């Protein structure tokens, strides 16, 4: 194991926290958390299975949904090991290298999900604004190319994080603020100059906000296009194709914005609130996105019900 050298001691591990003040109830808290992970895994695997096995769903919109599903699963599996160790086995220590690796994957999949949500908003605009050329513009090859670009862009964005954190010196403080490792949380423990991490961390957060603003611009353009449609029935039909995506955007960005506002403007906040909000950020999107798309997207809902009925018959 690589050792981080400091002037007073040698730190090889950091300490994660569960629910501050509720340590006695960690074993009970683990039950809903495990259930949320299992439901998220089942829901996302169901979405992937339905899209893969149904030729009628081999369209750009559903390919992008598959990318969102994969990013959700990556986000879940990135935080799963430490959360289960804390709540089930009361093992709160994590090695420095494992911590750096975990924050890389968490931030990478977060950036990937943000990028995919942005691409999905452009997809909806293109489908509504130019439906006749939609399939010819977004071919399977082009969708695959967009997905590859999003993947590399997201992980290259956060690639410097583990290396800049390894360069820092850490003093006696080694307790983190969450149940998993985050870049901004680890760098606060450093006793050496972390200016590079602060600047680059701000740049990474700015990229997420740019994605959010571009999504907002996409929906302004969508609304403008929809208002130009003569039939009210067609207007509602066009807007209905965006409902699932709007829900996914709200589910993903609302905890991020709330957490940013709390850190920036609220002086005294309960550590428990911070931990809850951070856990919501990683647990809720993978849990809710499959439910939202199954409920609000008729094509997926029909196929899921058909598969369930088919199994009951056999």
UniProtKB/TrEMBL annotation:
Ranges annotated as spanning the membrane: 27-50, 62-84, 104-122, 143-163, 198-222, 243-266, 272-295
MF terms (GO), sorted A to Z: G protein-coupled receptor activity; olfactory receptor activity
Keyword Transcription regulation appears in the UniProt entry: no
Main subcellular location of this protein, as a coarse class: membrane
InterPro entries (alphabetical): GPCR_Rhodpsn, GPCR_Rhodpsn_7TM, Olfact_rcpt, OR51/52/56-like
Membrane topology designation: Multi-pass membrane protein
GO BP annotations, alphabetical order: cellular response to lipid
Keyword annotations of the record: Cell membrane, G-protein coupled receptor, Membrane, Olfaction, Receptor, Sensory transduction, Transducer, Transmembrane, Transmembrane helix
Family matches, as Pfam families: 7tm_4
Localisation: Cell membrane; Membrane
Location of the G-protein coupled receptors family 1 profile domain: 43-293
This protein's GO CC annotations: plasma membrane
Task performed by this protein: Putative odorant or sperm cell receptor.
Sequence similarity: Belongs to the G-protein coupled receptor 1 family.
Protein name as annotated: Olfactory receptor
Gene: LOC113904916
């Amino acid at each position: 194991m690589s050792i981080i050298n400091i002037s007073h001691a040698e730190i090889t591990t950091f300490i994660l926290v569960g629910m501050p003040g509720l340590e006695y109830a960690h074993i009970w808290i683990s039950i809903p958390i495990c259930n949320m992970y299992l439901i998220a895994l089942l829901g996302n695997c169901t979405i992937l299975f339905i899209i893969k096995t149904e030729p009628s769903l081999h369209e750009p919109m559903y390919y992008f949904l598959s990318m969102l599903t994969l990013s959700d699963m990556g986000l879940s599996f990135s935080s799963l090991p430490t959360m289960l160790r804390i709540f089930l086995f009361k093992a709160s220590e994590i090695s420095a290298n494992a911590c750096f690796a975990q924050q890389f994957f968490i931030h990478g999949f977060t950036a990937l999900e943000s990028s995919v949500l942005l691409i999905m908003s452009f997809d909806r605009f293109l489908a509504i604004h130019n439906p006749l050329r939609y399939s010819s513009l977004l071919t399977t090859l082009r969708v695959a190319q967009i997905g590859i670009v999003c993947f590399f862009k997201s992980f290259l964005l956060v690639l410097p994080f583990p290396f800049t954190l390894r360069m820092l010196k850490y003093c006696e403080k080694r307790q983190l603020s969450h149940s998993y490792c985050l870049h901004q949380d680890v760098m606060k423990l450093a006793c050496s100059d972390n200016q590079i991490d602060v600047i680059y961390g701000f740049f990474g957060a700015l990229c997420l906000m740019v994605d959010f603003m571009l999504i907002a611009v996409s929906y302004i353009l969508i609304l403008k296009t929809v208002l130009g449609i003569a039939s009210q029935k067609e207007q509602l039909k066009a807007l209905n194709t965006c409902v699932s995506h709007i829900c996914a955007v709200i589910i993903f960005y609302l905890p991020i914005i709330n957490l940013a506002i709390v850190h920036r403007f609220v002086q005294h906040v309960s550590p428990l609130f911070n931990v809850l909000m951070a856990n919501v950020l990683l647990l809720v999107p993978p849990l809710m996105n499959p439910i939202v798309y199954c409920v609000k997207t008729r094509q997926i809902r029909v196929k899921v019900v058909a598969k369930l009925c088919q199994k009951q018959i056999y």
